[in-house]
Amino acid sequence: MVMVTDHERASLLFEDLLEKSIAIKEIELKKIAGIPFVYLMPAEGVTKRELEDILKWCASKAMKGKRLTLAMSYVRKNQAFYVYRVRFLVPQRKMFCCGNLCDDCIRFTEP
After folding, report:
1. In which domain of life is the source organism classified (predicted)?
2. Contacts of 35 (CB under 8 A, 6+ apart)
């Protein structure tokens, strides 16, 4: 059995939700130099603002119940496609005790 992380699960759900959206005519996901990009061709009459709202809605549904945050930025318009950089960020976790008596000290967590 293959274990899937929350990050991978969110990415798969995000992609699935985008593909099911009637406001998006075509979608292409690319990783360039390790950075994920989403190429979206909107359906007729769909504005850039509506497209961004759909991206945010799909991302929020994909992240629900997971400790992830969204980093999304508009890159450019490439012919009929709008290009966005969309990343799900995993919160950083302390790896060692710094000695400052922090509330989230690694000493207080289970391995």
Report:
1. Bacteria
2. 85, 87
Residue 14: how many CA atoms within 13 Å on its side-chain side? 25
Low-confidence ranges of the chain (pLDDT < 70): 1-2, 93-95, 104, 106, 108-111
Residue 12 lies in a domain: yes
Do residues 42 and 25 touch, judged by C-beta distance below 8 A? yes
* CATH number of the domain encompassing residue 62: 3.30.70
pTM across the whole model: 0.74
Distance CA 51, CA 12 (A): 19
Domain residues for the domain of 59 are 6-89
Number of domains in the chain: 1
Return the DSSP state at 59. Answer: H
